[in-house]
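This entry is retained here.
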Amino acid sequence: MNVRTHLYFIMLLIAIPAGLPAQNSPQSISVTPRVQTGSVTKDADDPAIWIHPTDPAGSLVIGTDKARGKPGLYVWDMNGKQVQYVPVERPNNVDVRYGILIGGERVDVAVTNSRPLKQLKVYKIDPRTRQLVDITTPGGISLEELAIPYGLALYKRPKDGALFAILSSKSGDTKNLYQYRLEDDGQGRVRGRFIGKFGNNRIQSVVEGLVADDELGYLYACDETVGIRKFYADRDLGKDDQITIFGKKDGISGDREGIAIYKCDNGKGYILVSSQGNSVVKVYRREGDNGDPTQHSLIMTIDTKRSKDTDGLDVTSSPAGPNFPYGFLVTHDSPNKRFNLYAWEDIAQNTLTICPAGNRPSGVFMEPTVPETFELLQNFPNPFNPETQIQFELQQPAHVTLQILNLLGQPVRILVNETLAAGSHKVSWDGLNANRQPMPSGIYFYQMTVNGRKRTRQLVLMR
C-alpha cells in the first residue's frame, strides 16, 4: 500500500463517523492477502484469531489440520510464522474466548473438537509465552451425544460470564445443535457437561460453520446447502426455534462454510460467510437491515484472491500489529493447506465501516497474572503535525526502548534506549526518521519494551 492510499484511509476515517457505513456500496471487491501462513501437513480446515491483551503485534492465528498424518492445531504469528504445533486427533474446528474464570484467574481459551475421540480439548493461551497449554480436565470432555462431532462455536453469556460450546454432528441427528457448559473442575482445569439440544429440527442438510454473537445473544448456523439460520444462543430463554434464515441464494455456490462477525460498537458490524464453490465471502449487516434483526440482505461479495475452496474463516476488528491496524480477515486456502490474512481496510475501502482503533473482543483485557510495571499512554495531539508528545509511566527503574515503526513493522526512529528512573516520562517525535528526514503522512506505531514486555499504540502523521 502506498503513501497516497495511507492518507486516503486517514481522511476516510475522519470523514465517516464511526459505526456508519459509507454509501454507494459496490456489489463486489477483490482483495489480496498481506500475510500467508505456512502450510499444515495434509488438510487445513478452520482458523481462529487470538488478540494479545497488551501487544497487538503479538496476536495469533490458530488453525486446524483435520487429516490423518500429523493432525492438530497449528499456531502462527502475525507474520505467518509457525510458533507452535499441538497434536490433537483430527480436530475439525477451533474457537477462542477471552477472560474465562478458571482456577481463580481470568484466562483466554482455545477450544477444539476431536472427531474420532468424540471429545473437546481446552487450551489456555498464555500471553507471556504465546503458547497453548492443555487445561482439559483429566477425565476428558466427552461428546458421546454426537455421532461425529463437526461444527463448533463458543458462546460466553454476558449476564454471568458462563462459557458454552455449541456443536453439530456430521451424521446421526444433524437437524439440531448440541450445547455443553464448560466450567472449572475445582482443580484449575475445565470440564464439560451436556446441556441439551436445540434447533427445533430446522436444519435440512448439515452444519459446520457456527458463530455466536455474545453481545447480542445470537447464534448463526450455516445450513450448508440451504442458508444461514439465526437462533438465540442462550437456551435458558426457552426460545428454541430459529429467528430467521438468510443467505439462501445471493450467488452462493456449493456449501456455506465458514462464518464470523466483524464487531463494531453499539451492536453494529458485519457477518461474513464463505461460499466454498466459488471461493468468495459474502457480507451481511450484523444489526440487520435498518436495525431489523430478522432481515439480513447481502451488501457485498469479497473475492479473496489466493484463497480457494474456502472452508473456515475468522475476522476481528481489533488492531493486530503493524500489518493490521484495523483488524483482519483470515480465510482457509484449501489447495495450499494454509490460511491467508487480509487487512480490513483493504476490504473496507470506501464501502464498509472501519471500526475505531482500540475496539477489543469482550474480556480481552484479562486480570494480570503478574504486576504491571509500566504504562504507555496515547500520544497527543493525534493526528499531529509537526510534533507529538508520548508519555509513559514506570513503577520501578527499568531499561526502556521506545521506537517508531511503520505499517510494515519496520523501525523508523528510536526515541528512547536507556535506563530510566521510576515515575512519569515524556518524549516527543517530530515526524523525522533516524536520518532526520521527514516521514510522509500516514499511520505509524510507537512501541515500548520494558524487561521483554511490549506495549504498542498507533499514531497518525498528517503533513
About this structure: Residues 321 and 415 are 19 Å apart (CA to CA). The first strand starts at residue 28 and ends at 31. The chain is about 5% helix and 45% strand. Confidence is low (pLDDT under 50) at residues 1-24, 363-371.
